[in-house]
Amino acid sequence: MYTCLKNVQILISLLKQYGIRHIVISAGTRHTPLVHSVEQDPFFKTYSVVDERSASFFAIGMIEQLREPVAVCCTSGSAAANYVSAANEAFYQELPLLLLTADRNHYYQFQQEEQMIPQEGLYAAVCKKVVTLNHVRDEKDAWYCARLCNEALMELFDGKRGPVHIGFVVENDYPVRQGIVRFNAETLPAVRKTERLTLESSPEEWKRWAERLRRSKVLIIYGQRGPASERETALIEAFCERYSCVVMTDLLSNLHCSCSLHSFPMARMMNAEELKALAPDILITMNAFSISELKYKLGNPHFFREHWHVSPDGQISDPFKCLPDTVACSPMTFFEKFTALAEPKKQNAYLAAWRAQYARIGNQGSLNDEPVAYSSMYGIQQLIRRIPDGALLHIGNSNSIRLANYFQPSEKVTVCGNRGTHGIDGSMSAFVGQAHISGRLSFLILGDLSFFYDMNALWNQYVGKNLRILLCNNSGGGIFHSYPNQTNVPTLDEHIAAEHHTSAEAWVRSRGFNYLSCRNKEEFDRALPQLLAEETDAPVILEMFTDKETDAECIRTINSTYLRLPPPTLKQRVGSMLSEDMKDTIKKFLH
Q1: What is the CATH class of 376-572?
Q2: Where are the domains of the chain?
Q3: Spatial contact of 197 and 206, defined as CB atoms under 8 Å apart
Q4: Beta partners for 336?
Q5: Which of 10, 314, 13 is nearest to 133 (CA)?
Q6: Dihedral pair phi/psi, residue 295, rounded to 5°
Q7: What is the pTM for the complete model shown?
Q8: In this structure, are residues 280 and 217 in contact, taking their beta carbons and an 8 Å threshold?
């Protein structure tokens, strides 16, 4: 019988799958759920050494002979502190020592509770990975616990070896009465073990993974990255020729090849049935973040069989909550090695199917020439379609990056943005730094809150004549007006959208800019050529004044007209005007 505690069940299940069978145990109570469970399982070989310091060095001696990971396990309190010496020894000898320490809930920390010391920092400086497995109360807790456990155990086997620390929380009366000594599980949960392919993996292992790809429809979500070189582009196309593969990109991907498709408008267009029909067998993610909503739609529910994540450090990146397999190498090495393991196919029917779907957007996949009413979207559309080749385009976060991804600039334009944290701060400062170093004609698209938040970016000596800024000023955070669930918030503009009535004119003129402004299409169309001019006597800014509600309505219109998304139903419109209390009252009345 196994413990009733799910976090300990998950740990034991993965210990078995990773082949960690030797566990040196010291006396105590808190770790009873794990100790008694592994005692009852014939897979494990347990050893009793009372002194934790001696136990951990005993385990080191075993590792040196077995050449495989060995675990030590102790109770809470000062017992865990006795592993410090051995953890340091294992670090310098590069030995895979697994430290398993029981603990109480962290909310007891520094509350005059017994057997509580800060465990997470005990060996952090010398451990490859430190995680804490908290109590599992629902499926999300179970996924998180399994992910952390996989991340930790993988580090015992890959790359430079060293110690790993897994703490597991045990409470007397949580989640069931006397949970610490209750054993009522006859089987362990089915927990997925994450596999990792590395450059040290055998040729046979690489061939096995390549065969998985060869038998599958493959979709790559290619996240934010600098412009691909000719060699890199050729590698990606060669990979797609050998496997049934489609590469999904957005503006920040900076990738243009025969097998890539701009995914932002497509993701907004497709319904669940269409997406299911084109879903991949294997979904591969790589590089930094993607703007596209495709990753969310594919993951809820899971419209794919497997998820692989490619990164140089083999990180488990799991936005789909399915515990992915990982490939520990750079994306370009990934393409190069797998390309060498397969022959070209006669045709890529999977890519053809996606292209057919893509052609249904606007004018055969492009919204660059579709009619758009005067709004922030109109200004961004007109600028993006006219930015000259060789220019740099930096896009601010929030509404700016979303609106820009409806359209496509020339393939010879480099697109950048601070998308790592999705915050609005620092967009203009990063743009000024890029423009100064590159010396290229450089364009920035950003909203008013981003501009005023970072206005000191123009207060330095590196603002050059090559700067061109389109400032979309709709007097606040216009993006919040496009969220259906925000429209019934009476103070939306006051605190959430931060409404204001400020212009950038005085500040930018004082900083030596040529200032332009517009409030309708005619004024914008007259000002745009001046913003696009390559030779000017000063940097140029065009402040475009629009209305938040008009901007939001324009998004809804283009979604329903060109992306075939239905406009809100009467029920949805009425629902958006009702408060949550009123909705609850109506539900109670109807029932």
Answers
A1: alpha beta
A2: 2-193, 197-358, 376-572
A3: yes
A4: none
A5: 10
A6: -65, -35
A7: 0.85
A8: yes
